[in-house]
Amino acid sequence: MKKVFLIIALLFSFTSLSLADNYKGIVEKVEVIGNESVPKSTILYYISEKPGKPYSPELVAKDIKTLFKLGYFENISVDVEKGKKGLILRYFVKEKPIIADIVFKGNSHISSQRLKEELGLTKSEEEEGESKKIQKPLDYKFLDELKLKIQQIYAEKGYPGTRVAYTIDRISPTKAVVTFIIQEGQKANVCDIEIEGNKHVSSKDIKSVLATKEKSILHLRFSAPLSEENLSQDVENIKKLYQEKGYLDVEVAQPEVIKEQGNCYKVIYRIINEGEKYKFGKIIFEGNKLFSSKDLLKLSKKIRPGRTFNQKLVDKLVRKIIRKYGELGFIFANVVPEIKVHPKTHTADVIFHIYEGNRAYVRWINIHGNVATRDRTVRRELDLYETGIFNTVRLERSIRRLFNTGYFENVDVKPKVVGKDKVDVNVNLKERLTGMFSIGAGYSSVSKLVGMVSVSKGNIFGTGDSGAISLQAGSKVFYFDLNYSHRWWLDKPQTLSFALYNRRNEYFTYTSKKTGFSVMVTRRIWEDWHIGLGYLIERDKVTDIAEDASDLIKEEYGSRTIGMTTFFISKDVRDNRFLPHKGEYYRLTTQLASSVFGGDEDFYKLVGDYAYYFNLNDLPIDIELPFVASFHAKIGYADAFGSTSSLPLDYRFYVGGDNTVRGFRWGEAGPKDSNGDPEGANRELVFNFQVGYDVTKMLRLIAFVDVGGGWWDRYELGDMRKSAGVGLRVLTPMGPIRLDLGWKLDRRPGESSSEWHFGMGSYF
């Protein structure tokens, strides 16, 4: 239809032009008539004939073709008239109507909203589901493409034979509504899959790589659509599986589909010939100058001459080589493996053709979205700098560091290639509320009901510094804390922190009062490794000891001064330290109290922590599991020495409660005195297993199992307490809020069956 309009328009145009052959001279004026939506300036931009230029019929004909290619017009004609000083050209245009809306009829199995999302006509739910303004000129090619996409969507969802047509209704001279009329095909489900001809590879392994799946209650697969596209992909997947196991000569027939009862179909996959197993022959690297062939081969210990050929290992080595080049800034490096098969010897040589490319450098770093945060505060957290080398490892680390400042709700760092060896780094930020005044009440298993008032401010004046004043008061607790952290102290990647505090806790058989001051310097020493060195001076007082308290507690009566140094080393590669999805965390902390540091107590503590997070969707299984799993282990060792006979009460390990084994009261999973009250321990071992589901970016539901215990002078693994429960994590400007309910799995006489736990901050 478009070609017909073009031919007619050109005929009219050439008629007008033929009438103008008698006119010779200069163009006096160019006019555009009939445009409504397309600006006149836009049309004139594409017209090469300009006032003051010699008149040319060939240029006018070219202009008409150019304007048609824009796609906005369904008819164009040109009139030439003699003016006072030359020729007047008038371009008469008739615009195509704008598609105002696209609607669907006959679709019962797939909603119109879902179709629009699949077709890209509507924003995603993350963008609030607002419809786009299509504002696209009527284009039959575009509509034909949408028609094919609708048929593909139905085919992928198991509705083969779906027919689609469309109609166009003009609701005004400049607007049109397109209606897609859908005749849905009958639902087709795969109820049975058979594998034939396989001897060396199990049917179970073959089924695991198929895009086509069969109905299975065990796998919670209640719908298994039959898709022609998936069937074609299955043949390639089977071949790939055999190649990963060394069978390079495998032959796979096209799947056979047999209709059974109702909407059930059986699919049969036949392996025509498995062939013989191949082994690796020569391993050759070509084009590598930065790294030797020996260095590159070390990246995969399983690719060696004589070992079973595995295409998956070849592909994995390709990715490792590219990453190795990327670590040096050669992000444009490319690796193409060539497989040379020798059927007689059943060996396969692998030649890795390497194009090293140029090293990438950062041209500009552009920061957007930082309203309150200074540019300098953002730039110092980046592991990238202008004129410096760019690589993906540094990019990932930069994103992680910005997230872990806690000042940004969203961090998006994208490189943009701007030259042969240059990239611009665009940092797009969405700041989080960092100032908070709060007043309220809370409850924990130890302190009971507590009233709280606090004022905190992170990212003070956009510098990254933070400070807080907090007061907690209740029948069994009184806390007053004042702290301040100065980031990048002395313009180095280090933080200087101060804290003043006055605290009182009423425990089961005694009351503890503490007044102290602490200072800590934390320094990033290499990539994701940190060390910290701190000093604490504290006045402790133990009073109100109950008559039935144990002798161990009675010995603590009175006042003492503790002077203590703290040292730690840690590595944190979690993607987000507040609500992690993947990554690891290590920390080793030592504390040493001695009269040398101004105190009168001698003791030491050593605590090791390890946490690992991973997404269950990354597991090689068929079921979609949108959960985050995590594991945490903690071991503690402490003892007194010198003139101190026993470890001070407040520096013992109390296993059980909010931060160790949930479901137990504070200290309940460790040693108890003669009255059954926690007395603490100098040994602890705790394991936490947790699975979480993110309802939103700010809310995570969790289920957990905890195992742990505390002992004196030994570790008794057979005496570890166990619990399980559920909880939630809410990310607030002050950090994560935790609420857990745990049940004891080995409840003993006199113990409660469960406990509630409330706290702030990450659990581990």
From TrEMBL:
Entry keyword annotation includes Chaperone: no
Annotated signal sequence range: 1-20
Organism: Desulfurobacterium pacificum
Entry keywords, A to Z: Cell outer membrane, Membrane, Repeat, Signal, Transmembrane, Transmembrane beta strand
Name of the protein this chain belongs to: Outer membrane protein assembly factor BamA
Compartmental location: Membrane
Domain called POTRA: residue spans: 25-96, 278-357, 360-432
Pfam families: Omp85, POTRA
Major localisation: membrane
Any coiled-coil regions, as ranges: none
Gene3D superfamilies reported for this sequence: membrane protein fhac (3.10.20.310), membrane protein fhac: a member of the omp85/tpsb transporter family (2.40.160.50)
Keyword Ubl conjugation found: no
